[in-house]
C-alpha cells in the first residue's frame, strides 16, 4: 500500500498547466481593462457628455427623487407577491384543464384553450385598460374601482395564460411510461397526477416559471396607467416636474436589484436540477 | 500565441476608434448661444433663421392635441389657441403658413437632451427655473390658472375652499403644474391618482374612480362645456408663487433661435395679438370662483 506519488513528469505537466492558466487570466484581465478604459474615455470625451451627466446622473436629483421611488417600488413588490401566487395557482388549474383526457371533458379543454389563446394574444396594456377603466364603467355594485386591484386582476388574467402553457409543456414532457407505471400500480388519475406527473413536471419548468416571474416584476409597473404610483411612475413624475431623467436611472437600478435575487435563484435551481439529472439517480 | 497581445491591442484600438466615430461632432452650442444672446434685428432675419430645415419652421406638439388649445386634434388648421399662437409667432419670424411644418413630439422627447426634431415645441409647458436647466423657453404666451372640476352630483362640487377638498380622491396629469397644485396646495389625505393623459383622468372622473381632477382653467371649461357635461368647474386656485405661471414655447437648450423666438413672443404679447387670439379661442374661460 504505497501512497501515490506524482511522477516528475506529472508535476511538470501541472506546473505548465498552472502557468498557462495564470497567463491567460492575465491577458483576459488586461484586455478587459483596456476595453473598459477605451469605452469610458470614449463616452467621457463625447461632446454631449456634460449634459448627459447633468440630465441622467445628477446626485441632487437622485437624492430628491429616491424617497418617492422607493415608496413606489413597495407597490411593485406587493403586486408581484400577491399576483405571483394567484398566477401560479390559476395557471396550474388551466394547465390541468387542458391536459384532461376523455371526450366528456371537451368543453373544459376547449374553454382553457380559448382562454390561453385569448389572453396570450391580447396585449397586456389593452387588458389593463379594459380592466381598470372598463370594469368601473359597468357600475356593478360591490365591485371595486381601485386601479391597483383591477390592475392586479388584469396581470393575473394575462400571466396565468403564459404560466398555464409553461405548466402544460412540463406535464406533457413527462414520459408516458411514467403514467403507465403509475396506473399499473393502481393509482387513479388524480393520484397519478399528484404523486408522479406533477412533481416531475414542475421541477422541469422551474426556470421558465421564474423567468415569467421576473418579467411580471417589471410589468407590475404598468398598473400605473390607472393612476397608482409605482417606482417607474414616481420617476416619471419627478422627471416631468424638473425635466431631469436621473430618477429613471434610479428606478432602473432598483428594479435590477429586485430581479437579481430572482435570477440567482433561477440559476441555482437550474444547476441543482442538472446535477440531479446527470447523476442518473432517482427520477 | 504571439498574436494575443497584438489582437488585444487591435481590439482596444477598434473600440476606441468606434467610440470616436460614434461621437458626433460638437455642434458648438456655446458659440451659437453667445451669438444669439446679441439679439439684433439682422440676427433674426425674417424667414432665414438657422432652422432645422432651412426655409421652413418645424413646430412640435404632442398627440392628441387637446381642445381648446388645438381643434380637431389637428395643429395645422390654425384653430385653437396654441395653433393660432404658433402661426402668429411663425409669421412674426417671417415664415408664412405654407412654410410651417408640424411634427408629433411626445412630452418626454421634447424635454430630453440630444438632437430635437423641432425648432420649437408648443404643448402647454409651464415655464419654471428647474426646467430651464434642461431646455430653453421663449417668454410666456399665456398666463395659466389651475382649476378643479367634479361631477355635479359629487359632494366635492360643493367645496368652497381648498380645505374643503382635502378629504377627496383627486386626479391630475403627470408632468403638469396641475399635479403640483394637488401635491402642494390641496395636499389631499388620500393618495392622488396620477394619469399619463388627461383622457384617462376624464375616464376616471366619469367612473367615479376620482372625486375631482385638476386641470388648467381653459381645459376645465372645455371639459365641462363639451366633454363631460354633468361635471362643473368647482373653482380656480390662486397663484401661490409670486410670479404668475406662464406657458412658454420649448426650444433646445442653447438653441440659436431662442432669442429670436423670445423677442417674437414678447412683441406679440405687447401689441395685444395674444390677447386677441385668447378672446377668439378661450373666450369661454370666464371667471370661476377662487378657492382660498
From TrEMBL, chain A:
Biological processes annotated in GO: amino acid transport
Gene3D superfamilies found in the cross-reference section: MetI-like
UniProt KW Plastid keyword: no
Record CDD domains: TM_PBP2 (cd06261)
Molecular function per GO: transmembrane transporter activity
Membrane topology of this protein: Multi-pass membrane protein
Subcellular location: Cell membrane
Organism listed in the record: Cryptosporangium phraense
Family the UniProt entry places it in: Belongs to the binding-protein-dependent transport system permease family.
Primary localization class, coarse: membrane
Segments forming domain ABC transmembrane type-1: 73-266
Record bears the keyword Signal: no
InterPro entries in alphabetical order: AA_ABC_transptr_permease_3TM, ArtM/GltK/GlnP/TcyL/YhdX-like, MetI-like, MetI-like_sf
Keywords: Amino-acid transport, Cell membrane, Membrane, Transmembrane, Transmembrane helix, Transport
Protein name: Amino acid ABC transporter permease
Pfam family, one: BPD_transp_1
One GO cellular component term: ATP-binding cassette (ABC) transporter complex
Record field: transmembrane: 21-44, 73-97, 118-136, 148-167, 245-266
Automatic annotation (TrEMBL), chain B:
Gene Ontology cellular-component annotations: membrane
Keywords: Signal
One GO MF term attached to the UniProt entry: ligand-gated monoatomic ion channel activity
Domain Solute-binding protein family 3/N-terminal residues, every copy: 56-285
Domain (Ionotropic glutamate receptor C-terminal): residue spans on this chain: 56-284
Signal peptide span: 1-21
Domain of life, per lineage: Bacteria
PANTHER family named among the record's database cross-references: ARGININE-BINDING EXTRACELLULAR PROTEIN ARTP (PTHR35936:SF17), MEMBRANE-BOUND LYTIC MUREIN TRANSGLYCOSYLASE F (PTHR35936)
Name of the protein: Amino acid ABC transporter substrate-binding protein
Taxonomic source organism: Cryptosporangium phraense
Source taxonomy: Bacteria, Bacillati, Actinomycetota, Actinomycetes, Cryptosporangiales
